[in-house]
Amino acid sequence: MNARMSRRSFSRNTAIASLLGVNGFLPHGAHALPGLSGESGPPEKQFMDQYYDGIIDIVTGIRASQVDAIAGAMEKAYELKQKGGTLYSHVVYGHFTRFAGSSDRPGQPWILPQSVNHPTPEEFDGMKEGDFLITSAVNENTMAVRDRGVYVVGVTNNYFRFRRTPPGGLRPDRMKLSLEEMTGHIIDSQVPWNNGLIAAPQVPNFRLCPSTGIASMLVYWSCTASLATLIGTKGRGSSAAPVRRYLDMAEERFRMIGADRPKIDRVAEMWADRVLGRKARLLVYGHPQNVNTYGPTSSNNMFVNDAVICASSSMIAEPYTVAAGTLTPDDIVLIGAFTSDNTDEITVARHARNMGALTTAFCPYATDGDSSGARLFKEVDIAFNSYSDESAGVIEAEGFPEKVSPLSGVTGNLIHWMLTAQWADHMARRGEMPYFWQGYHENGGKEYDDMVHPYFLERGY
User: Fold this and answer.
1) Of 192, 220, 254, which one is at a domain's C-terminal end?
2) Does one domain contain both 62 and 82?
3) What is the DSSP string of 208-226?
4) N- to C-terminal Cα distance for the chain?
5) What is the average pLDDT across 35-47?
6) Neighbour-count burial for 139-157, b at 16+ CB within 10 Å, e otherwise
7) 358 with 332: CB under 8 angstroms?
8) CATH no. for residue 176?
9) Which of 246, 189, 229, 248 is closest to 75 using CA atoms?
10) What's the rounded Cα separation, in Å, for the pair 406 and 217?
11) What is the pLDDT of residue 330?
12) Do the domain assignments include residue 180?
């Protein structure tokens, strides 16, 4: 047994491994694993690089193989709309997507209206023959509307079974029906069946840092760009060209973020120093979205919702608003923003910095090229540019007052998860692998979380 690994830690890890049927699960004893304690041989790929490479594979995979599927779906949506059909979108599974496409988002033309949170039975009851539904969910309600004449397009999603889901991968109720059985029109978001993009040797039973939010929104905003073009040109414009344009721009911005990996690494190391040396908490904030529906709570924000108690997310992240009254100089405050001039986010940054907390933010550094005046990146200790300064979307469509399909959400979320991933990497290399949530939809996920969460509460990361 490694001298730094206590008998209590060893017993704890053995108990968890026994529960899960996994040998060598060492969430607190990462230093005891090859590549993490100075043993001979090359180190494993950094967590940040694993996440970045996985997202690049997703966006290039959609671009290479799914343009025709997206364009064909939107041609059908436009055709049915012209005949009087109603268009619905249920691409809301995964915490990020719940707010990334909300109705108050600049660049959201609301031509593919997103369901509020998870679709209700009443919404399905209102669907009729000749309507159109794009969805990432597999359930009996969707099957029922398909059978009565609604045209259903399925988007692959790790929360439900599709062709890459292995036998027994999800909990039994999620294995009964697959996306392919539900509809013949599939858009493959390229998301892995198990969501996370990081294969951590310390946590072999699931993958860390979710990808489904970015993958789903790349598809949703590509669909929006295509449909807006068809609507604006009365069906004469290309349904495929705006899809390619949006995905090309996404990849370009992602690669710009990839060039900032040395900075991400330095900041992640600072976070690790603070967590281990000062028992820092990680408090996440973003201005509430869709407040008319949900009310003004910070968890109603795409970045906060993805960070806190989400499948494959870190256990350390908690909402800033819940802990703001107990903020200390030891804490880390992370602010995620899709603009740089939101007064609420700037106020939070100033308060946290005045309290002595380490403030970090990701946001565009300008709005349509203008970075004058009060800006979030000027108010924090460390800022990352999300390289998406458009005030709305990035695709111009005839007849729409602003460009549609924004990029600042997906680029910001990429920074968020690369930073989280590299913080976990630095922690692991010091023998202090942090705890992450396994999704309840995965087989054994709830049992895993119930087992390890008390140890997280004891340790704090």
Assistant:
1) 254
2) yes
3) EEE-HHHHHHHHHHHHHHH
4) 23
5) 53
6) bebbeebbeeebbbbbbbb
7) yes
8) 3.40.50.10490
9) 229
10) 10
11) 97
12) yes
For residue 361, which phi and psi values (nearest 5 degrees)? -145, 155
pLDDT on residue 298: 58
Question: In the block, which residue shows the tokens 């193989």?
Answer: 65
For helices 241-258 and 67-82, what crossing angle results, to 10°? 130
DSSP, collapsed to helix, strand or coil, labels residue 81 as: helix
CA 64/CA 204 separation, integer angstroms: 31
Q: What is the mean pLDDT of residues 416-424?
A: 98
pLDDT-derived band at 44 (thresholds 50, 70, 90) equals confident
Averaged pLDDT, 87-101:
93
Do 337 and 359 contact (CB within 8 A), yes or no? no
Whether 23 has a pLDDT exceeding 50, the answer reads no
Contact 183, 154 (CB under 8 A): yes
Report if residue 26 sits inside a domain.
no
pLDDT of residue 74: 98
- 3-class DSSP string for 10-46: HHHHHHHHHHHCCCCCCCCCHHHCCCCCCCCCCCCCC
Closest CA to 411 of 380, 388, 438, 443: 388
348 pLDDT more than 50: yes
Coil, strand, or helix at residue 361? strand
| Cα-based distances in Å from 57 to 224, 311, 355, 410 | 22, 21, 41, 15
Q: Phi and psi (nearest 5°) for 173? A: -70, -20
Structural domains counted in the chain: 2
Assess if residue 24 is contained within a domain.
no
Binned at pLDDT 50, 70 and 90, residue 116 comes out as confident
More reliable by pLDDT, 95 or 77? 77
Q: Would you say residue 62 lies in a domain?
A: yes
If one compares 98 and 216, the residue with the highest pLDDT of the two is 216
Q: Which two tokens stand for residue 193?
A: 């069946």
Average pLDDT over residues 220-244: 98
429's tokens: 């290399």
| Stated length of the chain | 461
Q: What does the pLDDT average to over 117-145?
A: 93
Q: Are 313 and 434 spatial neighbours (Cβ–Cβ below 8 Å)?
A: no
Count the Cβ atoms, other than its own, within 10 Å of residue 329: 11
Domain that holds residue 310: 259-393+400-456
- 155 touches 189 (CB < 8 A): yes
